[in-house]
Each structure stands twice: as C-alpha cells, then as structure tokens.
Amino acid sequence: DAKTTQPTSMDCAEGRAANLPCNHSTISGNEYVYWYRQIHSQGPQYIIHGLKNNETNEMASLIITEDRKSSTLILPHATLRDTAVYYCIVRVPNTGNQFYFGTGTSLTVIP
Amino acid sequence: GAVVSQHPSRVICKSGTSVKIECRSLDFQATTMFWYRQFPKQSLMLMATSNEGSKATYEQGVEKDKFLINHASLTLSTLTVTSAHPEDSSFYICSALGDPEAFFGQGTRLTVV
C-alpha cells in the first residue's frame, strides 16, 4: 500500500552528489518521510527521516518541499558503496504503523 | 543503529517440510516486529505484523496457517513456513520497530526443492 512514487533507476558519477526524488502528494499532516536503502541481498538500512524541516545526518540530507508533496534525498559525495535500491516511505512514527515499501530507485554509482 | 539478527541466513528444505526462521533484537526490546518477503528484482512485501504476547496481524492475501508467527518475548520473533513448496522460495526479512525507525535483519534466503 505504498503512497510514494520514485524513478525506477538513476546513475551518478562517483564523487558527485546523488539527488533522489520522491513524490508523496497524498501525504497526511502527521506522516513523516523515511528513507531506507537496500544493498543487494541484504536487509534495508535506515538513512534518514523528517516531517517538514530539512534534515541532515552523517549519511545524507533530506529536503522536503514546503507543501510536503515531494522530497529529495541527497548523498553529497556518492561512492561505489552507495550503489543500492533507495526506498522512500511515508508513515506516522511512534505508532505501530507499518513500513510499506514501494518500488524504490535503483541507484548505480559509476566510477 | 540497533542490531537485528536473523537465523539462518540461508536454508534449503525439501518440499512438504517446515522451516523456522528466527529474528532477534539484540540490544533493545521490540514490542513490534514485522516480517517481509522479497522475490528477485522486486520490492519488500509486508507479510505480517507481530506484537509481543498477542496474535500476529497478517496482510491481505497472506495465509496465516501457512506462515506461523510467534512473538513470545520482547527480543525474539519466529516465522515458520509450514508445508513449504517451491513457490515459497524467497528472501524473508524481519524488522524490529524502534523509535522512530525500524531496524532490519540481514534476511534469510529460503530455497524449497
């Protein structure tokens, strides 16, 4: 029951910023935007989450538009190890609400 | 982040037998755990939500009698695939709900022959 839309695939040159967009036009006021990534044959890894303000951590930055209908995950200096499928998920935190995964974006970092 | 451990990482079983997969939250107590299934080149599909001390809640289309979930403690949930068939071959992933994110295990590759 995914409520997000992401491009199927993207390429990024090593060392450059990778900007991964996500559309969540039906997001509710109390839903957060979460990003996870999955490297081949592993479990998903949490990256970042946010409500309406831009967020940054050691892995990435999350930019959420003012109307909250879309967001962009930014990997500032992509490395080959960032090649993975990136999933954008909307969810209400601090509840038992599930994490539903959409199709995600397959990011390939090119040397 | 927190550590969630799944065991086994790979298992091969004969058709008609049952297989149990364990999911352990190693450094925090997880009241809620999730079980997912992932087929090749596809996304994760949520199978069920497991709550400690109560019955699991299954997603539509998931057979509860085939995929038995037990969450008897705050650190352990198990998924048993009963009477496995080749079409049950898949990558099974568990997740423990933290605050505010969920932490995922490394997955179990099940092959039914």
Give a verbal description of the structure.
The complex is a heterodimer of chains A (111) and B (113). With 111 residues, chain A is an all-beta fold. Chain A has no helices and nine strands. A five-stranded mixed sheet of chain A has the order 1-9-8-3-4, with no helix packed on it. Chain B has 113 residues and is mainly β. Chain B is 0% helix and 53% strand. Chain B has no helices and eleven strands. In chain B, the strands form two sheets. In chain B, strands 2, 4, 5, 6, 9, 10 and 11 form a seven-stranded mixed sheet that branches. Chain B has a four-stranded antiparallel sheet with strand order 1-3-8-7, with no helix packed on it. In chain B, β5 and β6 form a beta hairpin. The interface between A and B is medium-sized, with 23 and 27 residues.
Helix content of chain A: under 10%
Largest sheet of chain B: 7 strands, mixed
Tell me what portion of residues of chain B adopts beta-strand conformation: over 45%
Q: How many strand segments of chain A? A: 9
Strand content of chain A: over 45%
Strand order of the largest sheet of chain A: 1-9-8-3-4
Number of strands of chain B: 11
**SS content category of chain B:** mainly beta
> From the structure provided, what is the oligomeric state, counting identical versus distinct chains?
heterodimer
C-alpha end-to-end distance of chain B: 36 Å
Shape annotation of chain B: globular
Please give the count of helices of chain B.
0
- Proportion of helical residues of chain B: under 10%
In sequence order, what are the helices and strands of chain B, one letter per element? EEEEEEEEEEE
Calculate the terminal CA-CA distance of chain A, rounded to whole Å: 36 Å
- Provide mean pLDDT of chain B, rounded: 94
Radius of gyration of chain B: 13 Å
